[in-house]
Write a structure and sequence with these properties.
The chain is an all-alpha fold. Helices cover 54% and strands 0% of the residues. The protein has a single domain, classed as Non-ribosomal Peptide Synthetase Peptidyl Carrier Protein, Chain A, CATH 1.10.1200.10.
């Protein structure tokens, strides 16, 4: 989870401790369409995973990102 929080913190410009499963575009002003694409790109690179456009379009919060990563068989250590 630390690796994911680090990526999200950098892109969204918020402290890692403010990131939770419920972090989303509804409660973080910097979570816009551009940064959403950056997050996907960074997460794919960091975790060596590829997501489909359909999967990416369904991402609404951090929990959704974690589920995509886990769906690829990648362990996220909390």
């Amino acid at each position: 989870m630390q690796r994911l929080k680090s990526i999200l913190s950098k892109i969204l410009e918020i402290p890692e401790e403010e990131i939770s499963d419920n972090t989303s575009s509804e409660n973080v002003s910097t979570w816009d369409s551009y940064n959403a694409l950056l997050m996907v790109s960074e997460v794919e690179g960091e975790f060596k995973a590829k997501f489909t456009m359909e999967e990416v379009m369904k991402v609404k919060n951090v929990k959704d990102i974690k589920e995509l990563i886990k769906k690829r068989g990648i362990e996220l250590h909390e």
